[in-house]
Amino acid sequence: MNIVLNIIWVVFGGLMIAIEYAVASIGMMVTIIGIPFGLQTLKLAAVALWPFGTAARSSGWPSGCLAGVMNVIWWFLGGVAIALTHLLWGLVFCITIVGIPFGMQHFKLMKLALFPFGKDLTFS
Questions:
Q1: 84 is in which domain, residue-wise?
Q2: How many domains does the chain have?
Q3: Which of 6, 28, 44, 81 could form a disulfide with 34 if both were Cys (CB 3.0 to 4.6 A apart)?
Q4: Residues 77, 37: contact at Cβ < 8 Å?
C-alpha cells in the first residue's frame, strides 16, 4: 500500500517539493559553512520524494548541544517557513477523508523541517 500512496504523492506534488529541497540544498552548499545545512535539506528532499514508510529517528551525530544549536540556526535559515508551509498543506489535505494520509505526511515533514539535526531516516 505504501508504494501506491508514494506514487500518488510523487505525481501530485511530491516530486516538485523534492526538487525544491534539492535546489535549496545546492544553494546552501555553495559555502563551506552551509554544507551541514545543505545536507539536512537533502534529508528533507529524500522524505519529500518518498514519505510513506519513512521514519525519522534520533541519531548519534550531531547530538546534544551541537544538534540544538544547529537546529536553532536552521530555524533562522528557513526551517520555520518550511514547517509553516507543511502545516498549511497538512491542514488543507486533512479537510477530506481521502486526503488525511497525505496531510499526515505533511505533518511528519513539518516536524522534520523544524528539527532536522540529530535525525536519521529509515526507509521501509
A1: 2-123
A2: 1
A3: 28
A4: yes
